[in-house]
């Protein structure tokens, strides 16, 4: 086996729930219901609800109480990788990762449950108002006169705010993030061309212990053809990413740097020196025990498709920038799917009172009647904060359907 390891010295960023106050935790839970780990009580409640609704013909059910984590290398439910092992790889000490952490969070959003939510990372120079010391994420909760954001009610209870004022404005909740400077040996860093070649040599066809594959033409596999499966959009990854994480821990890797499945990805090499990058995450294996073969099996070739029109561009051999590559269209595709979910939320067949009650079908006549009788707080305007949406996102007019669309 060729030497795959390198030394990493740089800055990592993460958000830790324990760094948030009560409002911050509530915002995380409302906006990104899949991000925080469920409590034992919540798991039991969900399982009980599932069992209640099962067809009579089903007699045995098993639950995976702990979801898989991408490249963790854990067996189901054993959680030998410590919590807090995931980071984005920053470009500088201010924590700038070009919105990678924000987009990772957005992947756990569910507009049908949380309404319209957007996240902006203030370490990005485009949004820090020239204050490079800002180390926070801004979470925006939006409301419409006929569709109040579900976050309004619990927020009002905690803060004592009047629901009427909360529901008619764009709420913003600020979450801190943590930037850490680290030096780590024995890192598998997929930004490096030599490590990419090592991965193809040792894992493209499986190793027979951690991953068994059936490939018709293994010689056609390249690192770039492996990317769609390494960046699979499913939460927690796939059998391929589970097997690779287990494999890396078994050979003594202390950390793994891999491309984000939610962001556009790039790394710029010039004259053999890594000059810049964006869209990269790290899983830290330090403190986690080595693991035994996992026995994952995958039949068929490497997946070749990604969500949306994604483009992979590379620098040719012999070029000064050889080793550089970019993956474009990933963030745009996820944003388009998010927009579709937001529109579905706004087109649902009821409107929501600021106090959280459903009050009837979406109809302008109904809304006017409810306003007249005081059943809805009067609304004169909605603060969209549209100028603070991420670069490349849709404008406010695209996000919110017209009145005619609302009545569909």
How would you portray this structure in words?
With 408 residues, the chain is of the alpha+beta class. Helices cover 28% and strands 20% of the residues. The protein is built from 13 helices and 14 strands. The chain has helices at residues 22-31, 40-52, 100-106, 111-114, 152-159, 163-167, 193-203, 223-230, 239-250, 330-346, 364-373, 396-399, 403-406, and strands spanning 6-14, 86-89, 116-121, 136-142, 171-176, 178-189, 211-214, 255-259, 265-270, 273-278, 280-284, 296-299, 311-314, 325-328. The chain has a five-stranded mixed β-barrel with strand order 1-2-11-8-6. Strand 9 (265-270) and strand 10 (273-278) form a beta hairpin. Helix 1 runs antiparallel to helix 5. 35% of the residues are buried. The model is unreliable at 351-364 and 376-408 (pLDDT under 50).
């Amino acid at each position: 086996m060729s030497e795959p390891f390198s030394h990493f010295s740089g800055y990592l960023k993460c958000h830790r729930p324990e760094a948030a106050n009560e409002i911050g935790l509530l915002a995380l839970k409302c906006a990104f219901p899949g991000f925080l780990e469920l409590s034992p009580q919540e798991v039991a409640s969900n399982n009980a609800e599932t069992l209640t609704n099962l067809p009579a013909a089903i007699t045995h059910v098993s639950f995976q109480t702990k979801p898989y984590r991408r490249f963790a290398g854990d067996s189901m439910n054993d959680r030998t990788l410590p919590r807090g092992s995931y980071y984005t790889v920053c470009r500088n000490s201010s924590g700038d990762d070009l919105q990678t952490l924000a987009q990772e969070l957005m992947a756990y959003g569910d507009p049908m449950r949380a309404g319209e939510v957007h996240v902006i990372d203030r370490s990005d120079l485009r949004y820090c108002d020239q204050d490079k010391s800002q180390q926070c994420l801004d979470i925006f909760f939006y409301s419409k006169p006929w569709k109040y954001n579900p976050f309004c009610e619990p927020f009002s209870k905690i803060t004592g705010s009047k629901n009427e004022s909360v529901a008619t404005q764009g709420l913003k909740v600020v979450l801190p993030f943590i930037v850490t400077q680290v030096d780590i040996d024995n890192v598998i860093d997929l930004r490096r061309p030599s490590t990419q070649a090592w991965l193809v040599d040792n894992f493209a066809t499986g190793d027979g212990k951690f991953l068994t594959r059936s490939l018709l033409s293994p010689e056609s596999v390249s690192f770039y053809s492996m990317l769609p499966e390494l960046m699979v959009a499913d939460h927690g990854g796939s059998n391929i990413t589970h097997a690779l994480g287990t494999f890396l821990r078994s050979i003594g890797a202390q950390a793994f740097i891999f491309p984000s499945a939610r962001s556009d990805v790039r790394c710029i090499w010039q004259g053999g020196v890594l000059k810049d990058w964006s869209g990269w995450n790290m899983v830290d294996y330090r403190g986690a025990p080595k693991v035994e073969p996992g026995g994952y099996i995958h039949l068929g070739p490497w997946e070749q498709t990604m969500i949306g029109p994604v483009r992979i561009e590379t620098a040719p051999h012999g070029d000064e920038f050889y080793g550089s590559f970019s993956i474009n269209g990933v963030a745009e595709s996820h944003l388009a799917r998010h927009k579709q979910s937001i529109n579905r939320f706004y087109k649902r067949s009821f409107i929501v009172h600021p106090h959280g009650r459903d009050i009837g079908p979406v109809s302008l006549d109904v809304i006017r009647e409810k306003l007249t009788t005081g059943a809805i707080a009067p609304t004169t305007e909605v603060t969209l904060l549209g100028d603070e949406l991420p670069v490349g996102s849709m404008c406010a007019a695209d996000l919110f359907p017209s009145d005619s669309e609302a009545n569909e």
